[in-house]
Amino acid sequence: MNAVLKDSPVATVDPRFTVCGSSFSLTDEQRELIDLAETLGRTRFSARAAEWDREATFPMANYDDMRQAGLLGLCVPKAQGGLGADITTYALVSATIGKFCGATALTFNMHACSSMWPGILSDALDMTAEQRAEHERHRQVHFRRIIDDGAIYAQPFSEGTAAAAGRAPFGTAATKVDGGWLINGKKIFASLAGSADYYGVLCTEDKEGRSVRDSLYLAVPKDAPGFQIVGDWDPLGMRGTVSRNLTFKDVWVPDEAQMMPRGVYFQAASRWPHMFMTLSPTYMGIAIAAYEFTVRYLRGEIEGMGPPVKRRMYPTKQITVAEMHILLEQTRALFLRAFGEARVDPPKDVRLRAYAAQYTIMENANRLCQLAIRTCGGQSMLKSLPLERLYRDSRCGSLMLPWTAELCLDRIGREALYEPGEGDD
Ligand SMILES: Cc1cc2nc3c(=O)[nH]c(=O)nc-3n(C[C@H](O)[C@H](O)[C@H](O)COP(=O)(O)OP(=O)(O)OC[C@H]3O[C@@H](n4cnc5c(N)ncnc54)[C@H](O)[C@@H]3O)c2cc1C
Q: Do 308 and 320 sit in the same domain of this protein?
């Protein structure tokens, strides 16, 4: 395991492992990685979070720490020098980071998926022997950049159309040319804009009658001619993600830029549904942070607020904490179960549970923050404390495509009532 912080202070790790609970069965590697994320979060990310949020700037210092700790290679296979995390391990680490800095956890999702999708996810999908060999060559290029150069990857797929919901082909087009691809189009909400070294762009191969099956996943270097970052970034929450817009005008990338072979992204999206759940650990972390803040606040343990004032003796506070506790347990139970059963071609009940888990985590994170502010009271929403940031950050969770809260309801309702191919006439 190379995930060790060289200049780390003595670890002040919370032994309660609040993301999974003390009785959850962890491997030694998972335990070590959660410990590492907890230490970084507690000793570094927590104190910096307010500044990224206030200034709407990318948490680069956190990425420097994660790079040094080996975490940028979390989902890079061990054979390529990474930590070889599976999706559950990724979820546990990401949620742990999310307790301390939502913007770091959310952007880390985009970076980590850039090696998870070409890595373990692609390993489970069908490819011809030729495709598999070509993919192996291509992905080595990306893995080497992350492991050897500490490169950061973004993952822009949103375009403000039905494409990001998986209901239409991406408008951004890639035309095959000798030795590579020419990309033209536009992306919105590209987290890590201006801070990533590579942008893993979801686009569609430019050909007659193109469909969602023709999706491509191409890595564009930050300095590629014709690539531009445009627009402002001044949102309600998740301000440190710096999710500005991108434009591509005849941007050339070589063949090795292909992060998944032709047709494999579509196959993944159809057969590996949990790939779209990876944003939810960030919000699981936020939910835990809101609950923990509330308990400490009501116990009079929050520092920097003058002489401690306890509020825990009021029955209404106790009832709200109980309500929050139940919500948190329900959320955490679905989170752990859904990630634990992630796999290719899951049966229907597992697929529906993944939608239910995503919906529950995203909605309950915000609900927990609302309850936290209501019961802690006016002083708790001052910007000198983290709760109002948690509240704003949590609001964005259910807006994340392709599995927004609305679209999860849509999918559950439809798939519960109709078998594939079934109609009403
Ligand atoms: C902080 C933050 C960071 C982000 N980072 C990234 C990133 O790194 N990469 C990236 O690609 N995107 C990113 N996004 C974008 C995000 O995933 C969504 O694409 C974006 O929030 C959609 O905004 P919109 O107004 O275009 O939504 P719309 O597409 O207009 O959707 C609005 C709502 O309508 C519903 N809806 C959408 N399509 C359908 C449909 N076909 N049928 C029924 N209902 C539908 C959904 O519930 C959705 O919430 C980020 C967003 C935020 C807030």
A: yes
